[in-house]
Design a protein that fits this description.
0% of the residues lie in helices and 52% in strands. The protein is built from no helices and 11 strands. The strands form 2 sheets. Strands 2, 4, 5, 6, 9, 10 and 11 form a 7-stranded mixed sheet that branches. Strands 1-3-8-7 form a 4-stranded antiparallel sheet, with no helix packed on it.
Length: 120
């Protein structure tokens, strides 16, 4: 059972990246899937989440209007489209299954993250 994040890289400020979270060993559309990030010296924070039941989405305030989460159940993959990237978005990005997309949550991280670096 694994969630593998990919698609990170180095991009200039204002640029875009699309991250992918590929599930293996289980059907991801039965789960809420969250994207998280951790910058050096900082705690891991939840960035976005998509619910399993009706596909409703959650975004952390600093990424609203710039990031978009979606899922392709046929590919067992969740995406995070990141536009208008800023240097403060630099972090390792992870995906995880979560018990809820809003409020307090428990997350289970099942794979490695992907590095996103935004240069100014």
């Amino acid at each position: 059972v694994q969630l593998q994040a990919s698609g990170g890289g180095l991009v200039q400020s204002g640029g875009s990246l699309r991250l992918s979270c590929a599930a293996s060993g289980f059907t991801s559309d039965y789960y809420n899937i969250g994207w998280f990030r951790q910058a050096p010296g900082k705690a891991r924070e939840r960035v976005s989440c998509i619910s399993s039941d009706d596909g409703t989405t959650y975004y952390e305030e600093s990424v609203k209007g710039r990031f978009s989460i979606s899922r392709d159940n046929a590919k067992n993959t969740v995406y995070l489209q990141m536009n208008s990237l800023k240097p403060e978005d630099t972090a390792v990005y992870y995906c995880a299954t979560v018990d809820r997309c809003w409020g307090a949550y428990d997350a289970i991280f099942r794979g490695q993250g992907t590095q996103v670096t935004v240069s100014s």
